[in-house]
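for the writeup, i need someone to sanity check this before i put it in the appendix. the sequnce is what the collaborator sent (i think, or maybe the updated version? ugh). structure was predicted straight from it, no edits. if anything looks off just tell me and ill rerun, i have time this weekend
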Amino acid sequence: TSNICTNQGLLVTAATIHMAIVGGTGLQKVAQACHANTRALVTKLTANQYVEPVFSRPYFHECALRLRVPLKNLLRPLAAHNLLPGYELVQDYPELGDCLLVCATETKTEADLNLFADHLDKLIERQTTAGCPVKPKI
């Protein structure tokens, strides 16, 4: 058998054990926590004027966001802080350049969400002020 088949078997086993331990009610709580965390993350990220939802439709666990700055300038610095920014949609949908698919699982805390949003805000600010460390006094 290939490594892929072995990995699939291990994932199925792990998922079965997890679902058996948490039960139906626990699985519902996990789903609700994921949904709440994703909504909170999207709210925090879209508070920045350079981040907006791609679609105006309801979402459950993932949300597509458009950033009005080049993603290539944001992804590596976020990764350097051990922050996974999301999935670059342009890889599969060329028309969605500079768009990310983001989510926040039940394992994320308010502090985790704030950390990510704060880092992203700082990086966007650097991009939109032409790298100038001093804010203009207008």
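The CA atoms of residues 45 and 117 lie 6 Å apart. The mean pLDDT is 92.
thx in advance!!
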